[in-house]
Design goal:
This protein is mainly alpha-helical. The protein is built from 21 helices and six strands. Helix content is 56%, strand content 5%. Strand 5 and strand 6 form a beta hairpin. Helix 9 (208-223) runs antiparallel to helix 10 (232-247), helix 10 (232-247) crosses helix 11 and helix 15 crosses helix 17 (407-416).
Length: 561
């Protein structure tokens, strides 16, 4: 009989029928070093927590956050799904945990759309928006840290403790994960639940009865957070079938039936979690939308109609399809365009990912395919992320790398596997690249949202190549107020701000330069960098005739006229 410790170092992906193969030898650790890995895990997550909390404290509401925070508060007080149907409730219920602790005053007589709902809660109901936003962001920060433990555990299963520490380090220093993990938004929670589901499906190769239902529940949590996780459903079902097939001995027909049952359990558990999420908001499942729900026809309409989800979920899908049909504007490498570019996300990732991380992601993907012992794990990490990346690239909204924020999670696990390569240079090169990632991330502090790597000039040059949530999501309105008060007291201010904040709340008294003749615009012209990127006509001429004198948070430019 093998001891548990002996079994833990066996290859979980040994071919069916083959004798268990021992993974790379794991040397006995000296007693004095037993604390080293837990200490490193603690330090990495502690620095990530510090970066996220520090960022959350200083940033004003981004464009999407008031909608989610307002909807979360409405869940707590109305106990009904009324706003923001295009995103299911679970992520907003996570945010609601912080909102409940903040205890804001909610106006039950409010009538308006979901955008006005958030602004009314933050700025017109007697609440402190700084305090409320911090509490709304804290649950997402905690969830982001917990997903770091999933990255560590997944990488440890594949590459041992050293590879797990490397994977966690790449996760904890990822500028995109720090930036979006510190916001009361849904991108990081959805991505983290997907990674958790994939990890549990991988572990089902040993204990399918335990891990297959849990994998389905984690997948359901992702589906109940963002509908963009739907393309992962058939992928996870297929992977669950593979895991059950590998785990269950016996004749071919019996294994095939059990594999199909495993895929079915994942689907049923996922659907059950989605229903449970809506029931948690309103046990009566009332659905009274506060905005028109567009009609969807053809194949899409049929698919939405057949979905085994609550009516509110299906109407949310209809809203998403309508948004996909809208002619959005994009901005890439100085070019303003209407529509979408299939290569937008790869190009944006090239700009916004640390160079060392790009190298380790590539090396990790190659390692998964090239190293025989790791090859069975390759479909679990590369296929879901590839399918989701392809779905995101096919979308119509070229707004930022947050749409593929799952990549820094999945590929961090893959990168940790580089240490399994039996070459003397592997640990040295991996360590140097990981250190390069850490330094690049630390130098960006606390401006993680507009981060770009050194090859593209760093955060202060990102606005020349990208826009929207890559750079300027309305997060620096408070910093702008401080800058105007400290350096430009008493000066006339003209403002074009892209965001959900209310400038007057922060003491910014300004006029819109687009509403008066250009000759009257004198003093300070303050423009969000996303508005600069999309400027056309007279407004573009106005900016061109102005002299830049200052910048705020790498997202707002101050001009002198």
């Amino acid at each position: 009989m093998m001891t548990r410790e002996q079994h833990s170092v066996l290859d979980p992906a040994a071919p069916d029928g083959a004798p268990p193969q021992r993974a790379d030898p794991v040397p006995r650790r000296r007693p004095a070093r037993r604390w080293s890995v837990p200490l490193l895990v603690f330090l990495l997550l502690a620095q990530m927590a510090f970066a996220m909390v520090t960022t959350a404290v200083r940033q004003t509401p981004t464009i999407d956050e008031p909608v989610y925070v307002g909807t979360a508060a409405d869940y707590l007080h109305a106990h009904e799904v009324r706003y923001n149907p295009e995103h299911p409730p679970l992520g907003k219920l996570v945010i609601a945990a912080g909102v409940a602790l903040a205890g804001p005053h909610v106006d039950p007589s409010f009538e308006g759309d979901q955008g006005a709902l958030g602004r009314h809660l933050l700025y017109e109901s007697g609440n402190d928006p700084w305090w409320l936003m911090l509490w709304a962001r804290l649950p997402v920060i905690v969830l982001t840290l917990l997903f770091g433990l999933v990255v560590f555990a997944f990488a440890r299963d594949l590459a041992g403790p050293a590879g797990a520490v490397v994977a966690l380090a790449l996760y904890a220093f990822s500028p995109d994960l720090i930036a979006h993990g510190s916001l009361a938004t849904l991108d990081v929670p959805a991505a983290g639940f997907l990674l958790t589901s994939v990890w549990l499906v991988w572990r089902a190769r040993r204990r399918p009865r335990l891990h297959v239902p849990l994998a389905g529940a984690a997948l359901g949590a992702a589906l109940a957070t963002k509908m963009s996780a739907l393309p992962a459903l058939p992928v996870l079902m297929a992977l669950a079938a593979v895991s059950v097939w590998c785990a269950v001995p016996g004749e071919r027909r019996g294994r095939l039936l059990r594999a199909a049952a495993g895929a079915g359990v994942v689907a049923l558990a996922a659907v059950a979690v989605v229903w449970a999420t809506y029931l948690a908001v309103d046990p009566r499942l009332r659905w009274s939308p506060q905005q028109p729900v567009p009609a969807v026809h053809g194949l899409r309409g049929l698919l939405v109609h057949l979905m085994p989800f609550p009516e509110a979920y299906r109407d949310g899908m209809r809203v998403q399809f309508a948004l996909e049909n809208y002619p959005w504007q994009g901005f890439l490498f100085g070019r303003l365009y209407t529509g979408s570019l299939w290569y937008y996300l790869p190009a944006a990732l090239l700009v916004k990912t640390p160079l060392g991380l790009l190298a380790l992601w590539t090396a990790g993907a190659v390692t998964l395919v090239a190293v025989r012992r790791l090859r069975p794990a390759a479909p679990y990490l590369l296929v879901p992320s590839g399918v989701l990346l392809a779905a995101a690239m096919d979308g119509s909204r070229d707004f930022g790398t947050r749409y593929v924020v799952f990549l820094p999670m999945f590929l961090a696990v893959a990168a940790g596997c580089v240490l399994t390569v039996r070459r003397r240079w592997a640990p040295v090169v991996t360590g140097v690249l990981a250190l390069f990632v850490a330094v690049s991330s630390l130098l960006a502090f606390p401006y993680y949202l507009p981060y770009s790597n050194e090859a593209f000039g760093g955060p202060d040059r990102t606005h020349l190549r990208l826009h929207d949530s890559n750079v300027d999501w309305g997060q620096d309105l408070g910093r702008l107020a401080d800058r105007l008060r400290e350096r430009y007291p008493g000066e006339r201010v003209w403002l074009v701000y892209k965001g959900s904040g209310v400038p007057s709340y922060y003491g910014i008294e300004a006029s819109d330069p687009r509403e008066v003749p250009a000759a009257e615009v004198r003093g300070l012209l303050v423009v969000s960098d996303s508005a600069v990127a999309k400027a056309q006509g007279r407004f573009r001429e106005l900016i061109a005739a102005s002299r830049p004198v200052d910048e705020v948070g790498h997202s707002i430019t101050i001009y002198r006229r």
